[in-house]
TrEMBL record, chain A:
Coiled-coil residue windows: none
Alphabetical list of InterPro entries matching this protein: MetI-like, MetI-like_sf
Family of the protein in this entry: Belongs to the binding-protein-dependent transport system permease family.
Source species taxonomy: Bacteria, Pseudomonadati, Pseudomonadota, Alphaproteobacteria, Hyphomicrobiales
Domain of life: Bacteria
Keyword Transmembrane applies: yes
Transmembrane segments: 7-25, 61-82, 102-120, 127-145, 218-240
Protein name: ABC transporter permease
Cell location: Cell membrane
Principal cellular location given in the protein's record: membrane
Keywords: Cell membrane, Membrane, Transmembrane, Transmembrane helix, Transport
Membrane topology per record: Multi-pass membrane protein
ABC transmembrane type-1 domain sequence ranges: 57-237
Keyword Ribosomal protein among record annotations: no
UniProtKB/TrEMBL annotation, chain B:
MF (Gene Ontology): ATP binding
Keywords per UniProt: ATP-binding, Nucleotide-binding, Transport
PROSITE patterns in the cross-refs: ABC_TRANSPORTER_1, ABC_TRANSPORTER_2
Residues of the ABC transporter domain: 5-243
Record-given protein name: ABC transporter ATP-binding protein
InterPro entries per record: AAA+_ATPase (IPR003593), ABC_transporter-like_ATP-bd (IPR003439), ABC_transporter-like_CS (IPR017871), ABC_transporter_ATP-bind (IPR050166), P-loop_NTPase (IPR027417)
First and last residue of the signal peptide: none
Record's keyword annotation contains Transit peptide: no
CDD domains: ABC_NrtD_SsuB_transporters (cd03293)
Organism: Microvirga terrestris
A Pfam family recorded for this sequence: ABC_tran
Family of the protein in this entry: Belongs to the ABC transporter superfamily.
Length: 255, 263
């Protein structure tokens, strides 16, 4: 078999192997399905609750994408600002880092005071948790423009704006797309946290209710649905990265 | 004849210099219009500072810099630059890289969109002149180092600058490629009538290409010797093997050695 085919098959083999091993261990060690249900039990629950799961999953997907979209827009803008001005960068960095250090679960109650229970807190939480990596990466990409390149353009009379848009932003794109992969998974964390604490729908809310009622297989089923959604969104951003910044992925390591 | 570039009694200290020592001190230098000048000197003598002063990227603490009859108080806008590192943008094709200055400099900036074909033809003409005919569609990282440097020269010339500043443009190339590019540079200068200031470590390069050579001292940099090069143009690479050529290189080497010792 060719090395390339092996690489393409590897994720499937490893994933299936993981679940098979899990299934076998559950049966051999006779683990109670209250502690750790076997994958077959979980898949059974996914099928059984499919309508409910699909409804809530769609809601979570919307919350995540809305928060993620806000984070991309805001992150790009703030990143461009921070990357092109050393003063703003130095001034706002401690604030940004401090803000990012606050666990976002702790912010949800404030969002509930402000907006009440509903779709706003999950979207806001997803946004707040995922914009930081985008800002940092875009700012870094712009701030590290080669000084020679800057000289070439400045000697032509280019303004700061010209340099940022002609060189800084395109050059920051690989960093930006890299950060999107981190941000999309974070956005999931954010929307689920928001739904758990301040929403009546969504996988997060379903999780809270299922665990309160000790419906263990349903809890696991919800987790599996989240994982699958996460993988799909990650794959989409990774694909966007490859098709937008092919020029940056020519190293042997990226192949 | 009035000099095109006139650096008069210039002293420059970088604001960020830790020791507060000037990078150049009481620097005097005059280059005539259309002339090919070379600046040689020991490393760290402020050659790059001189480039920044002449293009208006830095302003002198003392003294005056006059380019094209005007005192420099902002980036001069009529300069093209090329460095040791070709600094091509990897997301643009070679052709789009070469067109980049036109997206900045007026009047091309506002004409570019409507007269694209005309500019592309011009860029392709330049590519052919430096021996890269038909390579414009490739990305710079698909070209060898020497080819990237040729493209970088095209980018420096596309907007027909009156002043071309070259900071060791051939420093990272092997000696055969370097000699090839000397000839490319010689032909470009003959064709474009542009004033060129070449900063280099290579005395043979300076002697082969330049009409006038300035030797700089170690930091703080000053001009310690000025030498006109009388070899008739067009020059052939063969002249680099004549005794007169060697004698001149040897003489320059003497100046540099002295400058190093004085430091």
């Amino acid at each position: 078999m060719k090395a390339k085919n092996k690489l393409a098959l590897a994720p499937w083999v490893f994933t299936v192997g993981f679940f098979v091993l899990w299934e076998i261990l559950c049966h051999v060690l006779k683990i109670s399905s209250f502690i750790l249900p076997a994958p077959s039990t979980i898949m059974g629950a996914v099928w059984e609750y499919r309508n409910q799961l699909a409804y809530h999953a769609m809601h979570t997907l919307w919350m995540t994408l809305a928060g993620f979209g806000l984070a991309v827009g805001f992150g790009l803008l703030l990143g461009m600002l921070l990357g092109s001005s050393r003063l703003i960068n130095a001034g706002t960095y401690p604030l940004l880092v401090g803000f990012n250090s606050i666990p976002k679960v702790a912010v949800v109650p404030i969002l509930v005071f402000w907006f009440g229970v509903g779709w706003v807190p999950p979207v806001m939480t997803a946004f707040l948790i995922s914009f930081f990596p985008i800002v940092v990466n875009v700012a870094t990409g712009i701030a590290t423009v080669e000084p020679e390149m800057e000289d070439v353009l400045r000697a032509l009379g280019a303004s700061k704006r010209d340099i940022v848009f002609k060189v800084g932003v395109p050059r920051a794109m690989p960093y930006f797309f890299g950060s999107l992969k981190v941000a999309i998974t974070l956005a999931y964390v954010g929307s689920v946290i928001g739904e758990q604490n301040a929403s009546n729908v969504g996988i997060g809310n379903l999780l809270t209710r299922a665990s309160a009622a000790f419906e263990v297989p349903l809890v696991w089923a919800a987790l599996v649905v989240l994982a699958v959604l996460g993988v799909i969104m990650y794959a989409i951003t990774a694909y966007a990265e490859r098709s937008m910044t092919g020029w940056a992925q020519r190293s042997q390591m990226a192949a | 004849m009035k000099p095109f570039v006139d650096i008069h009694d210039v002293t420059h200290v970088y604001a960020r210099a830790e020791d507060g020592l000037p990078a150049v001190q009481n620097l005097n230098l005059k280059v005539n219009e259309g002339e090919f000048a070379a600046i040689v000197g020991p490393s760290g003598c402020g050659k790059s500072t001189l480039m920044k002063l002449a293009t208006g990227l830095q302003f002198p603490v003392e003294g005056t810099v006059i380019v094209d009859g005007r005192q420099v108080g902002a980036p001069v806008k009529l300069a093209g630059m090329a460095f040791q590192n070709p600094t091509m943008l990897p997301w643009r094709t070679t052709l789009d890289n070469i067109l980049l200055p036109l997206e900045i400099v007026e009047p091309h900036r506002s004409r570019l969109r409507r007269h694209k074909a005309e500019y592309v033809a011009k860029a392709e003409g330049l590519l052919a002149q430096v021996g890269l005919k038909g390579q414009g569609h490739k990305f710079p990282w698909q070209l060898s180092g020497g080819m990237q440097q040729r493209a970088s020269l095209c980018r420096a010339l596309i907007h027909e600058p009156k002043l071309l500043m070259l900071d060791e443009p051939f420093g990272a190339l092997d000696s055969f490629t370097r000699e090839e590019l000397w000839c490319v540079m010689r032909d470009l200068h003959a064709a474009q009538k542009v004033t060129i200031i070449l900063v280099t470590h290579d005395l043979r390069e300076a002697t082969f290409l330049a009409d006038r050579i300035f030797c700089m001292s170690a930091r703080p940099g000053r001009i310690v010797a000025e030498r006109e090069v009388e070899f008739p143009r067009p020059r052939d690479l063969e002249i680099t093997y004549t005794p007169e050529f060697s004698a001149l290189v040897h003489e320059l080497r003497g100046h540099i050695a002295q400058a190093r010792q004085a430091a």
